[in-house]
Amino acid sequence: MSTPLPTALWHSAFYQFAPISDVDALVEQLRLLTSDLQGSILLAAEGINGMVAGPAEALDTFEAALLAMAPFAGMLFKRSACATKPFNKMKVRRKAEIVPLGIDGVDVTAGMGINVPPAQWRALIAQEDVVLLDNRNSFEFRLGRFHNAIDPGVANFRDFPNYVKAHVSQWKAEGKRVAMYCTGGIRCEKTTAWMRDFDLPVYQLEGGILNYFAQMPDAERDWDGECFVFDNRIALDTHLQETPTTLEDVYAGEPDGEWRLSRARRLHGDGN
After folding, report:
1. Parent domain of 29
2. How far, rounded to the nearest angstrom, does the alpha carbon of residue 141 sit from its chain's CA centroid?
3. Are strands 10-17 and 77-81 parallel, antiparallel or unpaired?
4. CATH number at residue 141
5. Range 158-178 average pLDDT
6. pTM of the predicted protein model
7. Which among 243, 206, 264 has a CA at the least distance from the CA of 80?
8. Domain for residue 3, yes or no?
9. What letter would DSSP give residue 179?
10. d(C-alpha 177, C-alpha 131), whole Å
11. In whole angstroms, what separates CA 218 from the centre of its chain?
């Protein structure tokens, strides 16, 4: 399924919520810019969400080109080494949303939760009045999570708002603050933007789990297990190194595990 690397490759994950006026034109432009890379980039009127892989020099050129575009100034790129070729082809596509929350009208650019840098995250989640939510699917939580994190038990990101709505009154009554994390940060940004009107302090881990692993050499103090990634590497440890975990390991025991495994095999075989 996965292909040994002929030469050293790096993986770069990135996203940015920013208004894009001509999505179709940008799709064509990025198809040209990524001709020497592999991966997947989603573009919508609300921004960009992508994962690409290639030699370091090619990524340097691509990232510099993106940063030079006004909507993407200051965008964070999270790089990790590859022992396995993450993707087999390159796809740049237009979508209605770069991450679908299932709620219309959520504008991240109008405001979101409180961004917490990795260096401050450890102290925050140790506070007794903080409810720590894993903003990922249950199979991701089972593979790895922060200590004392809560699994909302969702099978799809669109299910997460229902969990929040069912518990927000209790959290407010108990004087709780909410902290949440996800793989790269994008799901949390959209969720906290939606939660702005709940009159509840909400925090998110800046750059997500991958940024925490990159910035905190002792991340294993706070983390149990591995981090699932949406490419052929499957899972990374706290030092951003690929683990021996397989797709079968990831989906074993899940209620819809057979369907997810079949779908993942197709997607990974397609390099997406």
Report:
1. 10-94
2. 13
3. antiparallel
4. 3.40.250.10
5. 95
6. 0.90
7. 243
8. no
9. E
10. 6
11. 21
115, 69: one domain: no
- Torsion angle defined by CA atoms of residues 224, 206, 177 and 125, in that order, rounded to the nearest 10 degrees: 30
Give me the pLDDT at residue 158, please: 86
Give exposure, 36-47, as e/b (b: 16+ Cβ within 10 Å).
ebbbbbbbbebb
Residues 6 or more apart in contact with residue 106 via CB below 8 angstroms: 190, 193, 194
CB atoms within 10 A of CB 31: 14
Partner residues linked to 90 by β-bridges: 39
- Which pLDDT score, from 0 to 100, does residue 2 have? 46
Catalytic residue among 82, 182, 188, 227: 182
Per-residue model confidence (pLDDT) at position 267: 65
Q: Could you give the residue ranges of the DSSP H alpha helices within the chain?
A: 23-33, 56-67, 118-125, 138-143, 160-173, 186-194, 208-215, 247-251, 257-269
| 227 catalytically annotated | no
pLDDT in tens, 91-105: 999 999 999 998 988
Are 86 and 124 part of one and the same domain?
A: no
Antiparallel, parallel or unpaired: β 77-81 and 47-54: unpaired
Q: Is residue 114 located within the same domain as residue 67?
A: no
What mean pLDDT is reported for the chain? Answer: 92
